[in-house]
From TrEMBL:
Signal peptide: none annotated. Coiled coil: none annotated. This is LacI family transcriptional regulator. Residues 4-58 form the HTH lacI-type domain. It comes from Hymenobacter coccineus.
Length: 338
């Protein structure tokens, strides 16, 4: 049996080969009805595209990059699944790059992309990212960039985030309603807008409840052992602390370990709320009250925006700003103990 090619599809449908090609690439230039006819015939005749020839003809790699700080946090694993679900359905490959929270590595990765290795980038910036010249340089080469979760404030492009200030506000209010009086918030780099927003929501809740605190935002790093020691020292120095909010999933472990080392019982002595997406939240001892981000949907949305820009070079990503709400789930780590 002869291999079915674009010319055969064009002859069957009485369309030009260029129309067939654009329809198969989901081009914005082709109407939905025509695309449907082409796709139905391609499926019926078991048409298999020549990926190499297609790539050469369009000067595209049919590959997108996902640049993230780390994979310890289950949020990023879920987001990658969402990105891949969209990309693979559109015939794109996905390459994953880790910056390990280092600006220099992020710069090297994006510099390599300028050679045409990828068609577009979905990224969440590192904790060290204060300069964005490397992101601007990549975009100047015509490579679209979409942010998710962590965005660079001075880059005008699409971003997919969650309601960080509001969800932290809700988590803080929950602790205060459970009669916590002295709170600390565990954070990472304040260079990140996401960290600043979570601190803002925390501060707003305290202010509305008439609580004024100092030195209550604890800046943690990337070393779990050092973070545990930092939290333990904080709890020892301020024995009145009865509520902890962790703004990063990996810091939850530090909070639990520090409390255990000091023989502080959760939730009797200290109550804990954390940004946390892993299913293990329900089986921790005690089970963890969480603020869960819609990670899979955020990944899907970010990939959809990027592929939309790749299909239509005339489209702009500047106006695209999607905010998906997080969910507060109450479990035993904040149970009221009378």
């Amino acid at each position: 049996m002869d291999k079915v090619n674009i010319k055969r599809l064009a002859e069957e449908l009485k369309l030009s080969t260029s129309t067939i090609s654009r329809a198969l690439q989901d081009s914005y230039q082709i109407g939905a009805e025509t695309k449907q006819r082409v796709l139905e015939l391609a499926k019926k005749l078991n048409y298999q595209p020549n990926a190499h020839a297609s790539s050469l003809g369009s000067r595209r790699s049919k590959t997108i990059a996902v640049v993230i700080p780390e994979v310890f946090d289950s949020y990023f694993a879920l987001a990658i699944n969402g990105i891949e679900a969209v990309a693979q359905a559109r015939g794109y490959h996905v390459l994953i790059y880790l910056t390990h929270e280092r600006l220099q590595l992020e710069q090297e990765i994006l510099h390599a992309f300028q050679s045409g290795r990828v068609d577009g980038v979905v990224m969440s910036v590192s904790a060290e990212t204060t300069s964005t010249a490397h992101i601007q340089a990549l975009r100047a080469q015509g490579v679209p960039v979409v942010f998710f979760d962590r965005a660079a404030d001075d880059i005008d492009t699409a971003r997919v985030t969650t309601n960080d200030a509001e969800s932290t506000y809700q988590g803080t209010c929950h602790l205060l309603e459970r009669q916590c009086t002295t709170l600390v918030l565990l954070s990472i780099s304040r260079h990140l807008s996401i960290s600043r927003q979570r601190i803002e929501g925390y501060r707003r809740a305290l202010a509305e409840h008439g609580i004024s605190q100092r030195d209550d935002v604890i800046d943690c790093g990337q070393d779990p052992e050092a973070n545990c020691e930092l939290v333990k020292n904080t709890l020892e120095a301020r024995p009145g602390i009865d509520g902890i909010i962790s703004t990063v999933e990996m810091l939850t472990e530090s909070a639990y370990q520090a409390c255990a080392a000091l023989h502080l019982r959760i939730p009797h002595d200290v109550k804990v709320v954390s940004f946390y997406n892993a299913r293990s939240a329900a089986i921790l001892n005690p089970s963890l009250t969480t603020i869960s981000q819609p990670a899979f949907e955020m990944g899907k949305t970010a990939a959809t925006l990027l592929l939309k820009a790749l299909r239509n070079p005339k489209s702009t990503l500047v106006a695209e700003n999607v905010v998906l709400p997080s969910v507060l789930t109450i479990r035993n780590s904040t149970t009221f103990v009378g």
